[in-house]
Amino acid sequence: MVRILPQLLSAWEKGQRVPQPEDVARLLGALRVDDVTYDRMMRLARHARDDNWLDSNPSDLPPALSGIVEYERTATRITSWYHAIVPGLLQTPDYARTILSNSEISLEQADAMLVVRLNRQRIFTKAEPVRLTALIGEIAIREEVGSAEIMSDQMDHLLEMMELSNISLRIVPANIGFHPGLLGSFILYEFAGLPPIVHLENSHATAFLHEADVVGDYAKQAKLLWRKALSEDATRALLREVAR
Q: Where do the structural domains in the chain lie, given as residue ranges?
């Protein structure tokens, strides 16, 4: 028996998403197709994204990261809250390299994941770009990652990204008392014709939440953080101050 979420299977059938080769392999195995059919279908699955940037990735993606990439690629809107670091979709190469090289992974894995992380940012400049609402804790822009120069470049990059009409970025100030965002970061993915999904991640685990009431709670939390955040003009002023 192959366990696949009904909404994901429906999206494949409608052509709204492209299944991963490993998912196709599982389905073909369950259906017990002959070798010729298996080879033909797997060849199609591996090249289904020939016109997509994923083909340029230097290594196979871990299952969790593969899911994230697919959600980012097919989402119409992404709302993210990061308390202590700049979100991956807005990181500069040097900032991302510093974080990955200090993680519990090999240098080769860090290099491969850096390529993936930077390629993921293309969702903002494709023909129908994803809309991003990025809420970032003030500590994320105050804490020095790598060096002062790396942080200055990162602040300049955030300012540049704010010039895109599909990106809204606002800083949530420090020292404003307790709020639910202090309990952890999250990402809310919204899709055309499909239920939204929330992604949670820490250093050793990741989770995707689909339950409507749970997703709704995170959507409310995002609105609360938005109300507590600086305006976009005030955010720009703070980023320029930190970048000096």
A: 1-48, 60-243
Token pair listed for 189: 């993915």
Question: Which CATH class, in words, describes the domain spanning 60-243?
Answer: alpha beta
Cβ contact 231:170 at 8 Å: yes
CB-based contact 228:172 (threshold 8 Å): yes
**Over the stretch 209-242, which tens digit does the pLDDT of each residue have?**
999 999 999 999 999 999 999 999 999 999 999 9
- Cα separation, 185 vs 176, in Å, equals 17
Given a contact cutoff of 8 angstroms between Cβ atoms, the answer to whether 135 and 209 are in contact is: no
Strand 206-209 relative to strand 197-201: parallel, antiparallel, unpaired?
Answer: antiparallel
β-sheet bridge partners, residue 82: 136
Closest CA to 132 of 119, 121, 116, 118: 121
- Tokens standing for residue 1: 């028996």
Q: pLDDT at residue 85 above 60? A: yes
Distance between CA atoms of 113 and 59, rounded to whole angstroms?
Answer: 9
The contacts of residue 22 (CB under 8 Å, 6+ apart) are 63
Question: For residue 190, what are the β-bridge partners?
Answer: 77
Residues in contact with 57: Cβ distance below 8 Å, sequence separation at least 6, in sequence order: 112, 115, 116, 119
Q: Tokens 């059938």 belong to which residue?
A: 13
> In whole angstroms, what is the distance from residue 21 CA to residue 46 CA?
6
